[in-house]
Amino acid sequence: MAWKITALARKNLSRKLFRSLAIIxxxxxxAATLFSVTTIMDSVEQSLERGTARLGADIMVVPEKAEAAAxxxxxSGKPSKFYMDKSVVxxxxxxxxxxxxxxxxxxxxxxxxxxxxxDLFLIGFDPExxxxxxxxxxxxxxRPLKADEVIMGRGITAYAVGFTVNFxxxxxxxxxxxxETGIDFIDNSxxxxxxxxxxxxxxxxxxxxxxxxxxxxxxxxxxxxxxxDISPDRVALFIQAKVDGVKAIVTNHIxxxxxxxxxxxxxxxxxxxxxxxxxxxxxxxxVFSMIVNERRRELGIxxxxxxxxxxxxxxxxxxxxxxxxxxxLVGVALGGGVLYLFKDAIYASxxxxxxxxxxxxxxxxxxxxxxxSLLTGxxxxxxxxIRAATLEPYExxxxxx
Length: 401
Description:
- The protein is an alpha+beta fold.
- The protein folds into 2 domains: about 1-50 and about 255-400, no CATH class; about 55-250, no CATH class.
- It has helices at about 1-15, 15-55, 65-75, 90-95, 185, 195-200, 210-215, 230-240, 250-295, 295-305, 310-350, 360-390, 395-400, and strands at about 60-65, 85, 100-110, 120-125, 150, 165, 170-175, 190-195, 220, 220-225, 245-250.
- It has a 9-stranded mixed beta sheet.
- The chain starts with a helix and ends with a helix.
């Protein structure tokens, strides 16, 4: 009987092709919107989690006047140059609650013949105390980084491990690539040791452009890991109280601010999605109520031939499920296609970090949207299906004449 009900459901849907396509289109719009919004939110969430883990720090200490620039550099990847005296590193190390400290120096490759790539974010770091760069190499280097070697972010696709690239008239060999994070500040940067920066300065000679581009005895940020028995917020207050002229930014606060920004941005879209979902449920419910009324005689004959109430109920629900799944499949394909084609423009307009979902995560999001599409049709058709199942055969046949 099950295969007969399935065949009958397909036949019924093909008879009213325009009406079936209308239901598919309604569910498709809901599925496409839902899939697009959830994919964007998931990609931002993944990027924030991985980027913060990659940063490896509970607190980022920057010059007091550079807080906005530091947040912008971290979230949007816009190269920013700000500096403070290198003595800040030792001062921060002595603050209560500080467990590990490392520093970084932000540079920008010059738009001159001395650099193969201009306007690229260069980040100098201390390999001896580093806990932010080397742990995230795609393959373990297994030794200290040499003065003539660099590590590249995954977003710089023109070069690969083993290539040589020139910065400030000095050749550097690429010995490692970082895992992708979705944050431009990390993915589109080149990391070199402080010894590498000293090497550039030692060979700058009379080149005043190079000498002026690299500050001496300065750092841009101090990255801090705190003791597990004290909160980063308290340590940040201790740092600002003990060290003059700095701002201690708790990295979790940056994540919270981006999440809030994303929520505000997506709230209106989610509201529209909810309205579309309600409209789709109402539309499917009305259409299947019409279907039950139109097919009263047919359903009565079906019952008179021996079909049970459960068979009639399953027939209506199956028709709704087929149309809903079809609409969900088309919607997910449409939403995914639009996102893939225009993802760069979408994320650029949002100006937030993002990490395109992996294949497995993409399939998981697709499955959730398909399930929601199926539930939309089944929930909407539930009332008409119950009413169709409770029709008395004789009354239904006479009522349909």
